[in-house]
Design a protein that fits this description.
It is globular and about 55 Å long. The chain has helices at about 10-20, 45-60, 65-75, 105-120, 135-140, 140-145, 175-185, 195-205, 205-210, 220-230; strands at about 5, 25-30, 85, 100, 125-130, 155, 190-195, 210-215. The protein is built from 10 helices and 8 strands. The protein is of the alpha/beta class and about 230 residues long. The chain starts with a strand and ends with a helix. A 6-stranded mixed sheet has the order 3-4-8-5-6-7. A two-stranded parallel ribbon has the order 1-2. The longest helix is centred in the first third of the chain and has 16 residues, at about 45-60.
Length: about 230
């Protein structure tokens, strides 16, 4: 008896929504059917514009008008660990880089985040330090991970974060972080595997003192490590 708000631009959701719309119990409302109006957001990225469009569509269904939604958009400063810019003033090493921490751990999230950074900083060098989250996810989505970093100029890959109680027994095979670095490196020359966070920092040390954009990405320990390093 409720409503379902779906992204028309996603072909699978479009199939589901079209099929459900034939029924009588659920109201299906699509957003992103055509070129949507750009919302006055403080945060950047096409995916955030789509999120705003979804939020406004849902708000309209609940009786909130466009004016109320636009007011919120003008004041919303984003979520913790979603392209969160870090204060690097406490770092002993002088840095000119813009540094972000991001929670992305799925290939689609990685691609969207890097595309947003590329759109925001079209002329800057973009460096991604990524810690895969859960070995089983990396194994299952390995082919998608290979193409997820295309918008970055340099990629540094850490070992997979092992999730207690959620990991299967270790499998034989090459679908691990080191193998991912090898595969990404076939198309992107500046791709490196770092066995530890300290090794990752060494790999991006020259980028930290340059006019680069560096994003530390993952849902595991990497955020705590980078905050400790920057003294945040």
């Amino acid at each position: 008896g409720g409503s379902l708000v779906l992204n028309f631009g996603d072909k699978e959701l479009r199939k589901i929504g079209t099929k459900m719309a034939r029924g009588e119990k659920t109201k299906v409302v699509f957003y992103n059917r055509a070129k949507f109006k750009k919302h006055p957001l403080l945060i950047f990225g096409v995916h955030n514009q789509l999120n705003a469009e979804a939020a406004q569509t849902a708000a309209n269904l609940l009786g909130a008008g466009e004016e109320a939604a636009e007011k919120v958009f003008r004041s919303y400063r984003g979520a913790w660990r979603r392209m969160e810019q870090l204060n690097t003033d406490n770092l002993k090493l002088i840095t000119h880089a813009v540094v972000y921490s991001d929670y992305a751990h799925h290939p689609t999230e990685i691609k969207a985040t890097l595309a947003a950074l590329r759109g925001k900083f079209p002329r800057k060098r973009i460096v991604c330090v990524f810690e895969p989250h859960q070995a089983d996810r990396l194994r299952r989505l390995f082919a998608l991970f290979i193409t997820a970093f295309s918008a970055a100029d340099k990629v540094v890959l850490l070992p997979s974060y092992q999730v207690a109680g959620r990991e299967e027994e270790k499998r034989n095979g090459a679908n691990d972080s080191f193998a991912l670095a090898q595969e990404v490196g076939r198309k992107k020359k500046e791709t490196f595997y770092a066995a530890t966070f300290a090794d990752a920092v060494k790999a991006v040390r020259t980028d930290l003192v340059s006019d680069a954009v560096i994003v530390f990405m993952g849902a595991g320990a990497i955020d705590a490590e980078v905050r400790k390093y920057f003294g945040i």
